[in-house]
Every structure is written in structure tokens, then in C-alpha cells.
Design brief:
The structure holds 2 protein chains of 2 kinds.
Chain A: H1 2-29, H2 34-39, H3 45-55, H4 61-73, E1 79-80, E2 85-86, H5 87-122, H6 127-141, H7 144-158, H8 175-210, H9 213-220, H10 225-262, H11 268-277, H12 281-309
Antiparallel strand pairs in A: 1-2
Helix pairs in contact in A: 1-12, 5-6, 5-8, 5-10, 5-12, 6-8, 7-8, 7-10, 8-10, 9-10, 10-11, 10-12, 11-12
Chain B: H1 3-12, H2 14-32, H3 69-105, H4 107-121, H5 125-136, H6 140-167, H7 170-177, H8 182-218, H9 230-237, H10 245-273, H11 275-278, E1 290-291, H12 293-300, H13 310-313, E2 319-332, E3 335-349, E4 354-358, H14 365-371, E5 381-390, E6 393-394, H15 400-406, E7 411-414, H16 428-440, H17 444-457, H18 463-466, H19 476-488, E8 494-498, H20 506-523, E9 526-531, H21 534-540, E10 543-548, E11 551-557, H22 558-563, H23 568-575, E12 625-627, E13 630-632, E14 640-641
Parallel strand pairs in B: 1-5, 4-9, 4-10, 7-8, 8-9
Antiparallel strand pairs in B: 2-3, 2-5, 5-6, 10-11, 11-13, 12-13, 12-14
Helix pairs in contact in B: 1-10, 2-3, 2-10, 3-4, 3-6, 3-8, 3-10, 4-6, 5-6, 6-8, 8-9, 8-10, 9-10, 16-17, 16-19, 17-19
Chain lengths: 315, 642
Amino acid sequence: MYRYILKRLILVIPVLLGISVIVFLIMAMLPGDAAQAILGSFATPENLARVRSDLGLDEPLVTRYVIWLGNMLQGDFGRSYTLQRPVLDEVLDRLGPTLLLAGTSLVLASIMGMLAGIIAAMKQFGWQDALFTFIVLIGISTPSFWLGLMFVLLFSLNLGWFPVSGMTAVIGGGGVFDVLRHLALPAVTLAVVATGVIARLTRSTMLEVLRKDFVRSARAKGLPERTVIMKHAYKNALVNIIPVLGIQAGFVIGGAVYIETVFQWPGIGRMLVNAILTRDVLLVQGGVVVVAAIYVLINLTADVFQHFLDPRISV
Amino acid sequence: MSTSSKLRRFFYNRLATVGLIIVLLVIAVSAMAPILPLADPNATDLDLRMLPPGSEGRPLGADELGRDMLSRLIWGLRVSLAVGISATVIAAVLGSLIGIFSAFYGGVLDNTLMRGVDMLMAFPYMLLALSIVAVLGPGLFNALIAISIVNIPFFARNVRGATVGLVRLEYVDAARLSGKSDMQILFGELLPNVLPVIFITISTTVGWMILETAGLSFLGLGAQPPTADLGSMLGEGRKSILTAPHVATLPGVVILVLVIGINLLGDGLRDVLDPYLRSGALVSPRPATDVDDQLRRRLDRPQNVAAPDASTASTRPSLEVDQLQTWFWQKRGRRSSAVRAADGVSFQVERGTALGIMGESGSGKSVTALSILGLVPTPPGRIMNGSIRYYGEELIGARIERLRHYRGNRIAYIFQNPMTSLNPLISVGEQIAESVRYHQSVGRGAARARALELMHKVQIPDAEARLDSFPHELSGGMRQRIGIAVALANDPDVIIADEPTTALDVTIQAQILKLLDSLRQSEGVALVFISHDFGVISEICDRVVVMYAGQVVESGTVDEIYRRPLHPYTRRLMECVPRLGERARTLEAIPGLPPALDDLPHGCRFADRCDVVMDECRVAPVSLRAVENREARCIRVEGQDV
């Protein structure tokens, strides 16, 4: 087990490097450069040159990458031009709320999605399955930003059950209950799409597993259907579902960009949108690198869980 | 499958038709926007600000600048649709090109491209799009590019996967030999064959791309005023959500309807194009085989329920199967037809004896065996007629609790493939112990001890160490011993072994047979042994039933059948059995094929392959005839109908 985790950790390094290369290339190769972006199209040539040398844009590409990577490894992600503070500080401040929101949503979506998928698979062709198909369709077809607005309209503005916005800090804010009140609507909204995807996958994976010989063997032993489904079929299905949960984590983090905007959530998503609108390229770059790295680690965790469940899987 | 039958399938799927109608309607309305009698979508009128829907001349009201909502929705829909479709086309073309080239040329190109694709997929999708917009700057066109780029990997992967399979096929070599250039092969031969994959990928991504581009516009990163798509309308409407909720609500509803339409259409398309879904791979069997309603009603009548009688129980056969019919119902379009897998099968087994059921694959022997405890998958299987009695108690139509009581307890199965019939994620000890625990209500420790005892009994060396092993850590022979240990867990009266040694090599096979034989003798188990191999059956069985095309064609003692087979089919089978000093004991193919079980001949089912067939054979169904203490289903056999 530990050997496996260690091996996987080593394999993560090239992925992280690859991500850094892609982020670097996107920022460096597309039309216009960071200096232009920061100063806008009316910048004087002198100012452009100054900012370029500040950012090290005069150097050859490879040198710039190595310097950039080296700085990042030392925790120097550069300074945000608009916020006038180190990029890393800002990113780390924003990370907590985003992880809380995305994590809650993913847990919600996993539980609801897997439950719905299992029930639909067991009651295939029954009304539960039809209802399931309908709900999943709505789930994966709904624009989450619109759903969030509708929730705000209904539950916050009309019914007054939840605050519209005003989430501040995860720790040291208004306490657990206050955080939960702020978290409820955005987390549920964000979970909707992922629930649909997970439910659909769970249903089809369960249907596939239920046809396997070992499920017949379990039934031939006279085990109760609950045991057949949960112990024999679901465990096998889970092996295939877990990697998708990891991928869904990425979609949930991405979806958080909308939800944070709708609910004024002080997370990385909103920070990124503002940074793009103010052309604060370094802030975008820092935020993207950190979130992408976290996403890689989430998928690593998913792999480890999968390995834990299925002794046949090796690196 | 022909194009017209694909279309038919598509329209059977009513939801897909609804999706198609929605999508066509949306396209028609957006295309006709310039000629529809609509107000100017950009004409502001401060008198009409935030007019609610239902007002005169403004059926859907007006927005915060007094612009007509209906007109803006249609024009916005036009933009959203155009952007979504363009993004899809760009992603599909570029992604498919990458995929097809990568697969065709392989090597370094393939490696480089696919590593790149993997890296892109290691990103959270949305963040990649945001990074691209960050560099290109906000704007509808830039949002379109960003969404296209992040979707390229999906196409590249799927298309590469499909093409790799094709490149290895012979027709590509043939095309190359015929002097076609690489480009001709790529676009003339390969592309048409991977088109379904491209369409399937489009069907799964297009709705998503429309949502994402709308999302970027909602965030202010896509469409910029005065251009408006549904997303940016929603984003602007958000400011007046309290005073004029319809301004933000309506664009979302339009997006929702559009994407629902696309997803319904996409699901229908996949049903038609995806061979995996088409194969019915996604139908799961119920806990027990269905019993035909009429049969169930007949069996429910009290006079037919033979109560298990203690006084006669010991003299009754352990298991009696009488006129069993288990059919598979298959749907072709709207019609369903029956495959008569088991079609009137009868036999019985007594305590301490072994009955062999012999036949080619597809003769109905496994279906017969699985019917006994309702383990034939439903759908498509259904028991249509007959009776199955365990010491006189009717099992067909029995409540599921009753079946479960017998399953693995009084009647146990040993399955053919020990590789697939053990759960790969549960230790073998637990797979034995759970059966003990459930039927004997003993604790975990006791069940585990019993599992160990059983593993010793089936002669697993070093059983203590193997208790916690997983199936993949054991050899095939060991796995089958575990399968036997599971069957023995609760000292059953009847063991049904379905080709238990077919997957094993000859030495292991002999050991397993010896083990089963000793169990029959020492524990008085009634054994039903299914095999296509007379050699194996003759080693262990007393009587044998020969099956062909769902029916019993002959039965008798192993000796009699070996010496003097009555039915021509049995005779052919026996010719394949080696005599003393000869090799090759496998069943050699008999010329011809068994009849299709959903289109059976009226007369003798073996007639087409029989070497002594007569005209009379084809006239009427042939019944089983009793000759002395054996039976055969052949009109050449002199005997009494049974």
C-alpha cells in the first residue's frame, strides 16, 4: 500500500511539470504578452519595455520557464498588479472557501448520485428508473449559474431562508452554523450537475456489474438482495466509479467559478474572473497552477482509493 | 444494420423524437429571426423598462432598458446556438484530425500528441478555458476558441481509440497495396468508419459546450454589448433579479430547453450508433427468473401444491424436473419472439446418485440447470411451463424468500468458469463464510472456522494462508475448489455442477471429478452434472440425459448409452468418444448447425443434421418414446410414447 502511494507520488511529478509547461506556454505564446495585457493597448513603448524586463520577458523562452518554475517552487508566484500583494497570499486566502464549497458539493453529489444510480439500476424499467432518467436529464442540462440565481430568487429573496451572499471567512467568521447557512444554496447548486453525471454512471456501471457471473454466484448462495447489491455488485462498481469522481472534482471546481460569482463567494473562481476582467495575468496564472496541482492530487487520492478497493490494480 | 432500420429504431425512442423536434424548432426559429415580425432587439424604450411578461405588444415583457424580451431571446438564442455549434465543429474537426493522424502514423507522433492530450485532460476543464480567455481577453470569439480548445482532447482520444482498432485491419493494408496514398486511406477508408464515434462524441459534448459558452458570457467574459447571447442576457438580468426576475429567468429557461433537446437527441443517437448500448449490455437480471402469469396462476391453485410430506420424503427423488419450458423473449422492433432455450425438459435425481446432462453448447442444459432455483436472467428469460420439485415441494413460482432459503443451502451450484464466478474484490474465505453465515446464523468467527474446514475438505493446500487470498492470487484449479467449497458450505442435498471442469486442465479435472464423486458417496448428495463431454460424464454419473435444441432426445444409464445409443444424435456424439487406446476425447463437430431456437422446424429438430433422416421425420413433432428403462426421441425407435 505505502509502496503504491510512493510510486504514484513519483508519477505525479511529470504531470505537475507538464501542467506548468502548459500554463507557461498559454501565457507566453498566445498573441499579446503579459506586459501588453497589464498596461493595455495604449501603453508607451518605454513602459512596455520596463514591465517586460521586470517580468523577464526579454529572456529566451526556456530560460524564462526555468526562472518562473524556480520562483514558483520557492513560493514566489509574482505580485498581483491590481491587488498590490503577492499572488500566492491572495490565492491561499481564496483557496479555503473554494475547497469548502467544492468539497461539500462533491460529497453531496457523490452520495446522492450513487444512491440514485443504485436504485435506478435495481428498479430498471420501473417508475423509479423513469423518474431517475428525467431528473438526470434536467440535472445535466441545467445551466448551474441560472439555477443558482433561481435558488437565490426563491429561497433567499422570496422565502428568506438563506442569506443571498456575505460569506466571509471559513474560520473565524460567524461560526459553523453561519458557514452552513451560507454554504447550503451554493453547495446544492454546484452539486446538481455532478449528481446527474455520477448517477448516470453509477446506474450504467451497476447494470453492467449485475450481469457478471459473480453476482449470479452471490444469488446462488441465497444471499439477500441487499447483500448482493451492496456487497457484491456495488463494491465492484465503485472501482469504476471512483476515477470518475476524481474527474468530477475537476468539473465541480470549474463550476465553482459560476457559483462563486452568483453567490458572491470569496473563492478562487471569483478571483480568477475578476483577474481576467482586470487583465491581472500573474494572478490568473498563479490561481490556475495552484488549482490544477490540487486537482492532480485529488486524482491521485482517487487512484489510491481505487487501489485500496481492488487488489488487482498495480501502478 | 441498414439505414432505414436505424431510423426506425431512432423513432421508437420517443424521447429522442421529442429532442429532435425541440432542436429543429430552435434551429428554425433562430434561422428565421430576421424575417419574423419581431421588435428591434436593441431598441430601448425607457417607458417600458422592466415590463413584466404578458403585457400588450411585449408578450415576454421588457428588460431593464425597455428592450423587447421575446425579440432579444430569439436573437440571443441565435448567437448562443451559432457559437455552440461553431465551437463543436472546430473541436470535432481538430480533435478528430489529431486522433486519426495519431493512430495512423503511431510512433513518436502518436506519443507526443497523446501525452499532450493527457496533459490537457489533467487540467480542470474550466480553468483551461479561463486561462485561454485570460490571455486572449474577454469576447465572444475568444470564448468560442477557448471552449473549442478545451474540448479537443475528448475528440482526439475517442477518435484515436476507434482508429487504432481499424488501422490494424487488413483492408487498410489492402488499400495501401492497391497504391492509395496515405491521405486517400485516411480520409477515404478510415474517416468514414470512425464517423459514428465522432457523432457520438459530438452528441455528448455539444450541450455541454453551449452551457459553457453561455457561462463565460454570463461571467462577462464572452459576448460583449451590444452583442448579446443568452448567457450575457442572464448576466445582465441578474442585476435586476429582485425587481424584474423575468429578465434573468427567461434566458435560462431557453438554454435549459435547448440543452434538454440536444441531450435527448444525443441519447437517441447513441442508442442507434453505439454497438455497446445496442447489444443490450445494460440490462440487468432480476433476483429471480420470471414465471409466466398463466403458469403462476395454475401453480397457485391449492390442489396443485404438493405439500412436502415427511413420511414419503425419504423415498421421493431429491429433485424432479417435469416438462420444464424456459424461454428467452427477445424484442425485434415492436414484436417479441421466443427463443425456446429449454423446451419441455424432464428428469429426476435420487439421493446419492449422479445424473449427467449432456449436449452441445446452446442445447439448453445450463438454462435447465439455472431454472431450478430461478437463476436464469430475467429479462430476457421466463419460465413458461413445467414443474420443479425438491422433495415434492414446488419451486417454480415459489416466493423469493423461499428460493433464497434453498439457494446455496439445500441446493447448491458449482459454476463453469471459476475465474468469473468468484467476486474479484472479496477474499475467498469470506466468499465461503458468507454463505454459512446467512443460512446457519452463526457468528463471524464460527463461519470463518467453517470456511477453513471446507477449504481443507476440498484439499486446498495451506488453507490457513489462503483464507484471506483474493481469487486472482489462486490458480484456476484452486479457484474451482473454492467454488466447490462454497457449494458445500451448508451440506446441500443437491449439487448442480455446470461444466465444472471445462476451464481446467486434464489433471486438475480428474482431481475435481474424484472430489465430487467422493462427496456423492460419503454425503449422499444428489449430483446433477452438466457437460458436453461424455468421457467426463461417464466417469462420475449413473444416468445421463442427452439434450438437443432445448429438448431431451435420449436418456438412460451411462452404460446403455455408451454401448447402444438409440438416437442418431447420441450415436454421433458417441462416435467422438475415444475407444480404448485411442486419443482425442473432445467432442468433434457434427456437420451442420442446431436449428435457431426462435424458428424451430415443425418435425424432428435434428432432421437437418441426421444421416438417417426420412420424410416422416419432418411431418410432426417427435415425442419421447420409452424403451425398457430408457427413452429416446426418434421415430425409428420402437417404443411407447411418454
